[in-house]
């Protein structure tokens, strides 16, 4: 009997260890003004050898901008030395990240589980069950599609809207949450679907719509269960120590050329080889099966950027002017809807050169007429307190921005007769 209970205790201890969540007690977030090239190089080195440091966004692309860095307690000493040595201008914007995460979790737990709260983050299972509900309501118009299976065996499911289930319609594809921590992409996609169905959006019947709110399913689930700031996939890479690949550096489009780190532990490690990640390979294969893809849209956080391809070169794409004109009109619509201002331009203008991006691969290989990628709220300079970038307070405004942007892009493309 005694042995039995001892074994139970051991088993329980193991299960507790397995389920343990990353904690961020007394982790701080600093806002840093990156003013010169030496400071920029320092940021790059921190990004390459993180050891607990993590930028809230990708690492800063250039001087003259503000960036936000999570600093773990074991780095406080080193960090204060770096601040002094490199004369960094820093502002403490959060002195206990865990407290902010706890507040977010409490907010999630307060939501009424039996009601769909469109101002709350949803777990992957919640998204899937909502899809099933929607399909049950309108089985002739809606269906669930799968682009394939993730490394951990999760179905990568999205919602397809094809009113009347007819063939031969032009298609639109929405990709979100390729980066596991960027939950506003998922909530914006869900809100867009909901609004379009409620409003019976003007061009709903005209297109065949594919909405994929969570591409990096394993990473997203891990961000919920283990580490709110998880960005990468969950497939082991060539290192023994670190897991995962930056999925938005993994596509076979100028792979491993720029905006990446060779350190497998870095947050922007592009993978052991192009398309090493099943999620990204599956996405590319699935895109080839869509008969007439006209528009490809993707959501990231954060920075309030409205981006035109590409990231891998500064050379302008042939349809740059078209993208820019429609982008300006959509930007006006965002401003009218919520007052928010998004900066419009090619990805390379904001991030420096970045290769292996999924939307660039789609644009170059599948050749939709229009491809845009957004960095949602807030702006780089707006992270002031609390947990801004992981906070549910931006769910509603970001979704409203994107509903205005997306519907205007599509309206305008229809007016011009290009889709
Ligand atoms: Zn991202």
TrEMBL record:
Species whose genome carries this gene: Polypedilum vanderplanki
PANTHER family: PROTEASE FAMILY M14 CARBOXYPEPTIDASE A,B, ZINC CARBOXYPEPTIDASE A 1-LIKE PROTEIN
InterPro entries tied to this protein: CARBOXYPEPT_ZN_1, M14A-like_propep, M14A_act_pep, Peptidase_M14
Alphabetical UniProt keywords: Carboxypeptidase, Disulfide bond, Hydrolase, Metal-binding, Metalloprotease, Protease, Signal, Zinc
GO BP annotations, alphabetical order: proteolysis
Active site: 375 (proton donor/acceptor)
Pfam families: Peptidase_M14 (PF00246), Propep_M14 (PF02244)
Signal sequence bounds: 1-19
Residues that span the membrane, as ranges: none
Domain Peptidase M14: 120-413
Entry cofactors: Zn(2+)
Gene Ontology CC: extracellular space
Record carries keyword RNA-binding: no
Protein name per its UniProtKB record: Peptidase M14 domain-containing protein
Gene Ontology MF annotations: metallocarboxypeptidase activity; zinc ion binding
Family: Belongs to the peptidase M14 family.
